[in-house]
Amino acid sequence: MAVLVSTTINGDAVEFACEPDETLLDVLRNRLGLTGSKEGCATGDCGACSVEVDGRLICSCLMLGVEAEDREIETVEGMADGATLHPLQTKFIEHAALQCGVCTPGFLVAAKALLAKNPDPSEEEIRFGLAGNLCRCTGYDKIVRAVQDAAKEMRGA
Amino acid sequence: MQYEAPETTKAAVSLLAKAKGSAYVLAGGSDLLVRMRTGFIEPDLVVDIKRIKSMSEVKKTATGFSIGAAVPCAALGENKALVKAWPGLVEAANLIGSKQVQGRCTITGNMCNAGPAADSVPAMVAAGARAVIQGPKGKRVIPVEQVAIAPGKTSLKRGELVELILLPERKPKSGDAYLRFIPRSEMDIAVVSAGVNLTLDAKGVVTSARVALGAVAPTVLLVDAAAKAIIGSKLDDAALEKLGAAASAACRPIDDKRGTIEFRTKVAAVLAKRAAKIAYKRAGGK
Ligand SMILES: Cc1cc2nc3c(=O)[nH]c(=O)nc-3n(C[C@H](O)[C@H](O)[C@H](O)COP(=O)(O)OP(=O)(O)OC[C@H]3O[C@@H](n4cnc5c(N)ncnc54)[C@H](O)[C@@H]3O)c2cc1C
Ligand code: FES
Ligand code: FES
Questions:
Q1: What ranges do the domains of chain B cover?
Q2: Which of A31, A71, B20, B238 has its CA at 20 to 30 Å from residue B125's CA atom?
Q3: Domain A3-78 belongs to what topology?
Q4: Residues of B100-129 as b/e, b for ≥16 C-beta within 10 angstroms?
């Protein structure tokens, strides 16, 4: 039986109905049309479904939609400010830190969470911090450079 | 499937006790949801404990720390007092999965999943942690090493759930450490692991110790002989050799794709020795 859930997504109050065993990722993609979060594995290994819930980075494939009641959820769709891209998004494009792009939303959300805690991470800290995000195309190097460059810009350096 | 998110421990116990069919506690869900998604289990009832306030906090108590069953591992790393008192335990908790997994997973879930390679369990066992269990017949408190009884099986009875993990009082000049062997540098399951916790006297002599090993038996092992090997020593080479030998002797591992019996037995000694050295240094020993 479907359950009614009230939550906040990217600052907006949102209501949806979902089955109790449906994941938050499925709710976002199939019920709310927020298809930025991707499903790479559905078992917590790839990070393509990364979102923040109450300020914590999580895999939306490992959370039930019903758990979202009264929580604050941030998805990749909330990163840009209207037509203005987030510095991480700009730098990913500048550094060509994506090829097929399936992993990119997850990397952006995870990198944003990483920089919020650590505005000036070392390369090692970036690689460890993003170890939960898999990319089959880029070889990671360009992603690390893009995050370093975005961090620099965000620090105003 | 029915989903419930009670706000009190009592309500959670009553839901679990009355459940017909299969009922599961949901903490971080990083094991439970994977098992649901891959079709290993089909719960009739899931009881989410994250709305229970008493289970969502880390508290410094008169006798140590109390860690709520719903506290995510990421929050343990953010608790400065806990990191200072139990750096090894927090390290172990923050080795679980990725940042994303740590945002949800709990040490209680790690323990109740009862995997032989659960990272936080050897650290908890070495720390002398106890689990506060609530059930239809009231409360009982048992050592963490008595929770898992076989791979995937716990000693919890129907209707019971873990409310808190209690860490004992931290004596001065104490330290703990946890190490695991994995073929990658992160995001992998321990092939072997070791947790060591010890206390020194003013001269740097080990006065008490606990040594626990993971992934070398069906459940995490508390190895008394390994602790005895270093008690009374300043962790000199002879004591370390005895520690390693006792650790290897306690291993009852399996051969699988991640490691052979021989490898696991040998590496258990190496990790126990290294973890003991780190714990010794953290306790202020030289
Ligand atoms: C990508 C990925 C990587 C991982 N890497 C690691 C790793 O490196 N090391 C490691 O040890 N584990 C790892 N795990 C496994 C898992 O993350 C851990 O075991 C975690 O600690 C489980 O905690 P949880 O809160 O998510 O548990 P849940 O999934 O919520 O629960 C696990 C089990 O315990 C039961 N349970 C939970 N809380 C209670 C309670 N209070 N009382 C009674 N029963 C309870 C549940 O019913 C369930 O059966 C990984 C998992 C994923 C998905
Ligand atoms: S889809 Fe969630 S981690 Fe891969
Ligand atoms: S760009 Fe294709 S997976 Fe990363």
A1: 2-168, 177-282
A2: B238
A3: Ubiquitin-like (UB roll) (3.10.20)
A4: bbbbbbbbbbbbbbbbbbbbbbbbbbbbbb
Classify domain B177-282 at the CATH topology level: Enolase-like; domain 1 (3.30.390)
Report, in this order, helix, strand and coil percent for chain B, each rounded to 5: 35, 25, 40
* Cβ–Cβ gap A131/B3 under 8 Å: no
Residues in chain A, total: 157
The answer to whether A79 and A88 are in contact (CB under 8 A) is yes
Can you give the pLDDT at residue A1?
81
**B186–chain A Cβ distance below 8 A for any pair:** yes
Specify whether the CB–CB gap between B178 and B193 falls below 8 A.
yes
Distance from CA of B167 to the nearest CA of A (A): 25
Q: ipTM of the predicted structure?
A: 0.96
Which of the listed residues A49, A64, A134, A136 should we mutate to test ligand 2's pocket, taking the one with most ligand atoms within 8 A of CB? A49
pLDDT digits (tens, 9 = 90+) for A36-90: 999 999 999 999 999 999 999 999 999 999 999 999 999 999 999 999 999 999 9
CA distance A81 to chain B (A): 24
Looking at the domain that runs over B2-168, which CATH code has it been given? 3.30.465.10
In chain B, which residues have their Cβ closer than 8 Å to the Cβ of A21? 1, 3, 36
Homologous superfamily assigned to A87-155: [2Fe-2S]-binding domain (1.10.150.120)
Which positions in chain A touch B95 (Cβ < 8 Å)?
none
| Pairing assessment for the beta strands B2-4 and A12-18 based on DSSP bridges | unpaired
A76–B contact, CB cutoff 8 A: no
Most informative mutation of A41, A50, A130, A137 for ligand 3 (most atoms within 8 A of CB): A137
Per-residue pLDDT of A13-36, as tens digits, reads 999 999 999 999 999 999 999 999
Q: Would you list the domain boundaries of chain A? A: 3-78, 87-155
Give the DSSP H/E element, type plus range, for residue B101.
helix B99-102
Q: Which residues line ligand 2 (CB under 6 A)?
A: A 39-42, 44-49, 59, 61
Given an 8 Å threshold on Cβ–Cβ distance, is B5 in contact with A67? yes
Tell me the average pLDDT across B101-105.
98
Pairwise CA distance, residues A58 & A72, whole Å: 12
CA of B268 to the centre of ligand 1 (A): 24
Q: Give the nearest partner residue to B29 out of A57, A63, A113, using CB atoms.
A: A63
